Amino acid sequence: MSAAAWRFTVNEEPVEVVAPGMRRLLDVLREDLGLTGTKEGCGEGECGACTVVLDGVVVDSCLVPICQVDGSTVETVEGLNRTGDSRGVPPLDPLQSAFLTAGGAQCGICTPGMLMAARAYLDAGGTSDEDAIREAIAGNLCRCTGYTKIIEAIAIAAASPAR
Amino acid sequence: MTPRRIAPDALVIERGESVYGRARAAAPLRREGPDKLTGAAKYADDLVFPGAWFGATLRSTEAHARFVGLDLDPAFDWSTVVVATAADIPGDNIVSLISDDQPVLVPLGGEIQHHAEPLVLLAAADRDQLRAARRNVTIRTEALSPTFDPLESEHVFAHYEIDEGDVEAALATADLVLEGTYRVGHQEQLYIENNAMIAMPREDGGVEVHGSLQCPYYIHKALKRALRLTDAQARVIQAETGGGFGGKEEYPSIVALHAALLARKCGKPVRMIYDRHEDLAATTKRHPAIVTHRTGVMLDGTLVAQDIEVVMDGGAYCTLTPVVLSRGAIHAGGPYRCPNVRIRARATRTNTPPNGAFRGFGAPQVEFAAEVQIDRLADALGVSPLDIRRRNLYRKGDTTPTGQVLRESVAASEVLERAVEAAEFEGVRARTSRERAARSRAGVLPTSPIQSGKDRLARGIGVALAWHGAGFTGSGEVKLASVASLELGADGRIRILTGSTEMGQGTKTIFPQLVAAELGVPYEAVEIAPQDTAFVPDSGPTVASRTAMVVGGLLIKAAQGLRLQVETRNDGRSFAASYREDAATHGPTRVDQKFEPYPHVHFDDETYRGDAYPAFGWAACVATVDVDLDTAEVTVRDVVAADDVGRVIHPVLAEGQVEGGTLQAIGYATIEEIKLDKGRYLNDRLATYIIPTSLDAPRITSILVEAPFDGAPHGAKGVGELPMDVGAPAVVAAIHDATGAWVHDLPASPERILAALGVTAPPTPPAGFAPGDGAAATDTTVEAPIDAGTDPRPDARTDPQLLRGPQDRPS
After folding, report:
1. Residues of B in Cβ contact (< 8 Å) with A137
2. In chain B, at which end, N or C, are there fewer CB atoms within 10 A of the end residue's CB?
3. pLDDT for B451
4. Which residues 6+ apart lie within 8 Å of B128 measured at CB?
């Protein structure tokens, strides 16, 4: 398949990628742009490990061909704490901090996708309501936590003034 | 009621309660947490190796066959592709583990023993070329006759017999004898990160591998043997690991060997990154099992005899099966005192992908059976499931079937009482019983006729209790002779050196926490070295819930040794005040702490008598379910889990283990099942192998109980596996409470519940069991009409597996 140039925004930075139109957004992020925070768990839209926010909508980046991203805005886990310094431990946004203190990340492989689903939920005005949080992350599988502390972390973030 | 305290200083940590104790004053944040939360953490597939090639594994599509030919299409350009076969293996064509039966690759002329068995390896510089090469390989085989039913297999990997007292005599005098057959199938670990390994050729002829793994020294040993390498030529480095649960205990050796063979042949780094389909199709699962019980009990509920047979399906190769079976055999009776016990356990070979380690390691299978059996006994006797457990559970001073006297740290009663108290078990059960009685009076029998009113959902509650041996079985720890090291560098840095891996459970947090507390320095002052065999000693595998207890204990001793040396050299000034100066003056100090046998712990591997474990952890679970009476769909609403872990090192991490283990157990109980066709896994994709989502998960309340183990300096017994043992039987008991049906097979799917209610024919049994295996397994116990106000348990006489009831008692 012939490659073409695709222009879009990742974490507020404009990028241009030359790739076949059907190349997965996941591969573009990980391999072409070096943004390996987004993970692949199944490659068929079941696990949500590759979740990113595309034009404000939560998507599985393994199911999105790059041709559909042209002109769009993509947010990944690397964009959550944009103020991070280059030395040592980066500062965390309120959602990441809540995950850290509540124990919402164990092995961490579902975490980037989980954070993006939660970020979109909070940005859409989501509250600390447990059932609503469960619904919001229903597309993201976690095998470590039983979801308990993930839900707790999102509820903490939802209740924090900074969100 | 006030719970009876078994261990003198047992302590219950409720959520939100502050915890006191030197090592626990302030639970630190997860060490690698910020990296995981920002996407900075590097998992295997995130690592960049310039010029790396991509590897692929060609696998068998038959369950049993002879590998007779390998054809490479001459029309294809093979000059840019590397093909590796068994002929390229310089050393033994064996995946080093317990038995030497599993080849790295099946050789030409050799026997293929299972579907998805590795035959040929390919590597190419890009994925398109690799895919094209795959299409140009033809594998020729000659079919052989396969065996799928573990009961029919004559190839026995291991067998054990545990005999205590006189079972037959006790059964003859028991008031009631109940038989039961229970069957469980495969379960996939389903770590969200698939198996992944990258191998690089070394200039010294060796190989360096980076990957997702639990046990660096297992891989180190496997590489040395198959590739004929020295200790230094084989180097294994753990990447950040996205979950293991046992699934990355032994299988990564195979992935590493394959990547290494290709890397050596093409002279480039080779990435062997499994996709989910390959991971599900080829890697190890929890062993299917069939467990048969014949139990004698007195009218008051006292157990007098247990006759238990366990048969596990090992799959095509031995892997860790003898050890899994051993744990299964020892735990088969459940956490109950019984003077006459006979346990016969065997594991056999079938032509299915090999089964291996998975959280619980043989115990969840047998404890499911033991707990449902205990519940059915209570049912038959008309006593409450709580009372029968209270009457028989192990207490301090009791003796187990291997003759082990439980001298300390016995908290069966404590966890049970805490769980039922928090779940308000007795009150809820009284209500669910009344509801069931009312449904029965109204003629609302499950599923007949279709109900659509509010009565459609039937609530039920169930309880289960389990024990779990802490650390390796028998003399395992003595044979491992693990080492953990602590180093004060010349630069004043304190560094932990162990082979214990972080896979989410918290190793990298609790180790510095324990050492910092012992040295009296801040948590941040203690570093932990990467899990790289070039630097860290062999601390044994990161399995068996042994890391906190065994390796954590070694580190505390190492810290005590380091502190003593430094303080002695510095006129008794505290370590914290003197270590930087000491390092500058005296240079580096390193303490290598080797495992020493726990005092008073002796086990005889030949006779299978003695202290099977230095201590046991104890777990109780209360599950509340709603069963849809039309569809038999089960919703697990709430779970209360109480787990005794000896000492809690880090409450947040320990709760995380309980909650995660509980949900894996709920998945095992309700939805997780591998379906097979001629030895091939049918649902080998994440679209078809289902695990619980946040909407399927119950609200889980975890209660940590502490009955410390004196043999470990910090009293910890481990937590990882405990919750896996109790979830399934608690759910099955709750389904019975809601419907009156006992489900004998896992998962308790709607099809099985409907069959247990006598509505439909039984579905296919789990794994490769034939419908006739343990014929009683599909017998039903249907709710009998009952009078209001009486205990609505089914009439004991309706249980067809009741060999002799109270009415038959000789007068």
Report:
1. 694
2. C
3. 59
4. none
Judge: B32–A108 Cβ closer than 8 Å, yes or no. yes
Q: Is the pLDDT of residue B291 over 60?
A: yes
Give residues 374 to 433 of B whose Cβ lies within 8 Å of A: none
Q: What is the DSSP letter of A28?
A: I
Instruction: For residue A144, list chain B residues with Cβ-Cβ distance below 8 A.
Output: 243, 504, 656, 660
Hey, is the C-beta of B187 within 8 angstroms of any chain A C-beta?
A: no
- By C-alpha distance, which of B728, B737, B723, B568 is closest to B660? B723
The DSSP secondary structure of B193-233, one letter per residue, reads SPPEEEEEE-TTS-EEEEE--S-HHHHHHHHHHHHT--TTT
Average pLDDT over residues B574-580: 97
Residue pairs between chains A and B whose CB atoms are closer than 8 Å = 173
Find chain A residues with C-beta within 8 A of B506's C-beta.
Answer: 106
Instruction: Report the residue of chain B nearest A49, measured CA to CA.
Output: B192
A100–chain B nearest CA distance, Å: 6
Cβ–Cβ below 8 Å for A107 and B191 = yes
CA–CA separation, B363 vs B791, rounded Å? 32
pLDDT at residue B32 is higher than 60:
yes
Q: Is the dihedral of CA B353, B762, B683, A151 positive or negative?
A: negative
Residue B690 has what pLDDT?
A: 96
Mark whether B399 and B523 lie in a shared domain.
no
Give the class (CATH, top level) of A3-79.
alpha beta
Q: Which of B543, B568, B594 is the last residue of a domain?
A: B594
**Does B702 reside within a domain?**
yes
Q: Are residues B374 and B413 in the same domain?
A: yes
pLDDT of B17 > 50? The answer is: no
- Name the residue ranges covered by the structural domains of chain A: 3-79, 94-159
Mean pLDDT along residues B114-119: 98
What ipTM is given for this predicted complex?
Answer: 0.97
In the predicted model, what is the mean pLDDT of chain A?
94
Q: Are residues B583 and B687 in the same domain?
A: no
User: How many CB atoms are located within 10 Å of the residue B610 CB?
Assistant: 16
Encode B659-688 in three state secondary structure. HHHHHHHHHHHHCCCCCEECCEECCCCCCC
* Top-confidence residue, B788 or B574: B574
- Catalogue the long-range contacts made by B123-126 (C-beta closer than 8 Å, 24 or more residues apart): B123/B53, B123/B54, B123/B55, B123/B56, B123/B81, B123/B82, B123/B84, B123/B262, B123/B263, B123/B265, B123/B266, B123/B268, B123/B270, B124/B53, B124/B54, B124/B80, B124/B81, B124/B82, B125/B53, B125/B54, B125/B80, B125/B268, B126/B54
| Cβ contact A141–B242 (<8 Å) | no
DSSP structural state of residue B43: B
Which domain covers residue B794, as residue numbers?
Answer: 179-186+285-472+610-808
Characterize the bridge pairing of strands B270-273 and B53-59. Answer: parallel
Residue B562 has pLDDT above 90, yes or no: yes
B 240-269 → A contacts, CB under 8 A? 240-245
Calpha distance B610→B401 (Å, rounded): 9
**Chain B residues lying within 8 Å of A46, measured CB to CB:** 685-687
Say yes or no for a CB contact (<8 Å) between A145 and B659: yes
CATH class of A94-159: mainly alpha
- Minimum mean pLDDT range among A26-35, B1-10, B516-525, B589-598: B1-10
Q: How far apart are CA B644 and CA B591, in angstroms?
A: 31
Mean pLDDT of B685-700: 98
Q: What is the pTM of this model?
A: 0.94
pLDDT-derived band at B810 (thresholds 50, 70, 90) equals: very low
Asked if B398 and B525 sit in the same domain, the reply is no
Query: A92–B662: do the CB atoms touch at under 8 Å?
Result: no
Contact (CB<8Å) B656/A150: no
Query: In this complex, do B37 and A43 lie within 8 Å of one another by their Cβ atoms?
Result: no
Minimal Cα distance from B688: which residue of A? A46
